[in-house]
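Morning run. Coffee first, then this:
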Amino acid sequence: MEFDEKISRRNLIKGAAGIAGVAALTAGGLGLLSKAEAAPKGATLPYPYKKFTAAEIKEAGNIAHAAWFKGFCSYAALIGGVEMLRKKVGEPYTSFPVELTTFAHGGTSGWGGTCGTLIGAGVLSSLCAGPKIGEAINNEVINFYATSALPIFVPDHPKAQIKTTSTSDSPLCHLSVGKWMKKEGVGFLSPQQMDRCGRLAADMCMKTLEYLNLWADGKFEPKTKAPVFANEIPSQNNCTECHGSNIPKTSGPFGTGLDLLKGGH
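And here it is:
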């Protein structure tokens, strides 16, 4: 499936400074979770799930990376797993409309909120494990996203070469990509930034599949609590890290990587 809608530079940059709160709730108290009986048809969650081999997880990563340039971050993180499950399982994945997540690019319609890779990953985990366990898996993926030096994945066919990784300490798109661009010395929609976000989509897709494999074996145990009550409201705990005089600034020209998108711009 392809997403052919063209990007408007004006609309992308218009919302780049927006902030959204974290939607994930605490996973505490769920205990050791095992695989529930999967429904045979698509109307009921969870969908059937078959474990991935290490080679299949890497293949899903390559699918996610390539898909970023068609439908961006949320779509990419989701379709990396769904495309493989279409081969392994068939229905109901075959008819699932993965394009429904394309709105979540750029932190949701370009507003710089929660990274779209986490939204796509959350849809994937919920499809496979059901809403409750899917949320617990997504909570672990969010923690991995915020605390790891990313990207980790190296695609078989990169669109650009990148030199650096960065740790966001946050699930927010604008903070994650802003820190990385500053460190890499490139601008938004540069070839390097676009390839980096494609790799990040692959990382979140692959991490989700790793957790789903643990769940299928009855070995998934949630360990992360989201900061829901840290400030008596769903929020981040490091806002002052960049707000005020330390808002991340980037280097390099804006938009030079647009020709990498399907169809050209």
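The mean pLDDT is 83. Good start to the day.
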